[in-house]
Design brief:
Elements (H helix, E strand, L loop, with lengths): L4 E5 L13 E11 L10 H12 L2 H6 L3 E9 L17 E9 L2 E11 L6 E10 L8
Antiparallel strand pairs: 1-2, 2-6, 3-4, 4-5, 5-6
Length: 138
């Protein structure tokens, strides 16, 4: 078994996507993931990094919005491109979650992908943050 790597935020939120997405790197600090093994959607790693991305998004910075909690994180499936477990054609992990904020309930659609050849850094990018979910998260 490979040793776990701890994750930390080493980037900053960038650009508004729809109503305020963003992106961050995760690597070497809390919580952990195993290098070379892309975390599944419903993990503390994904949850903590997603919360940081949303809290550092242009929307949050402009409005003072805060994250209260993040609901269930589920794989985002797109037949022919993204498998039912959220794994994309190039090993990315595609997910969606309900984010409960001081501005209301928002659906986040995001991707985790490798940011280094050693597969010890993960880039999480929110592609959509909206208040009209595509379908309920069970």
């Amino acid at each position: 078994m490979k040793p776990a790597v701890k994750a930390a935020i080493i980037g900053g939120g960038i650009g508004a996507i729809l109503i305020g997405g963003g992106s961050l790197f995760g690597s070497l600090a809390e919580p952990t993931f195993v290098p070379g093994e892309m975390p599944v959607c419903e993990t503390d790693f994904a949850r903590n990094l997603l919360q940081s991305v949303v809290e550092q998004s242009p929307l949050a910075k402009q409005t003072g919005m805060t994250v209260s909690s993040i609901g269930r994180i589920a794989p985002y499936e797109l037949p022919g491109y993204i498998a039912a477990n959220g794994e994309g054609l190039n090993g990315n992990r595609n997910c969606r979650a309900m984010v409960f904020t001081s501005a209301g309930k928002l659906e986040a659609v995001f991707t985790m992908e490798w940011a280094s050849e050693a597969k010890d850094q993960i880039w999480l990018q929110v592609s959509s943050l909206r208040n009209n979910p595509m379908s309920p998260l069970n």
